[in-house]
């Protein structure tokens, strides 16, 4: 019983934090009832918890990305052509400071690459 209460608590807490859930017409209580009926509350709780973590990570990523872009622009403007090493630094960070972000995971030969694109507000 204690384990079910913990899953229920995590499900309810996380579902209140997930903006994606709150934007739609989802009846979170009905989803909870179905998860209980199918005895998969632990999976539903983990799912909602992971969704909350992804949203938090996306928010933090966006905030850091904006700051990185602003700092890159300022450094570019304040440094001159006579600062080749600063320009190389800016160039090397260009893959994560522009509208298309690209980051290799692990070894370049065997690893994967994460690519994200930030779309302008409409």
Explain the overall architecture.
The chain is mainly alpha-helical and 122 residues long. It has one domain. It contains 6 helices and 2 strands; from the N terminus they run H-H-H-H-H-H-E-E. It has helices at residues 2-17, 19-23, 28-37, 41-78, 84-92, 94-97, and strands at residues 100-105, 112-117. The chain has a two-stranded antiparallel ribbon. A hairpin with a 6-residue loop joins strand 1 and strand 2 (112-117). The longest helix is centred in the middle third of the chain and has 38 residues, at 41-78. The radius of gyration is 21 Å and the shape is elongated. The N and C termini lie far apart (48 Å).
Q: Topology of this protein?
A:
Blueprint: H1 2-17, H2 19-23, H3 28-37, H4 41-78, H5 84-92, H6 94-97, E1 100-105, E2 112-117
Antiparallel strand pairs: 1-2
Helix pairs in contact: 1-4
């Amino acid at each position: 019983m204690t384990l079910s209460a913990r899953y229920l608590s995590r499900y309810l807490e996380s579902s209140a934090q997930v903006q994606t859930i709150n934007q739609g017409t989802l009846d979170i209580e009905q989803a909870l009832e179905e998860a209980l009926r199918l005895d998969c509350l632990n999976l539903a709780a983990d799912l909602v918890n992971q969704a909350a973590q992804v949203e938090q990570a996306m928010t933090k990523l966006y905030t850091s990305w904006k700051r990185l872009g602003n700092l890159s622009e300022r450094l570019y403007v304040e440094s001159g052509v006579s600062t080749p090493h600063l320009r190389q630094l800016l160039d090397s960070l260009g893959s994560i400071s522009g509208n298309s972000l690209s980051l290799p995971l692990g070894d370049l030969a065997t690893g994967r690459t994460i690519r994200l694109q930030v779309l302008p507000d409409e």
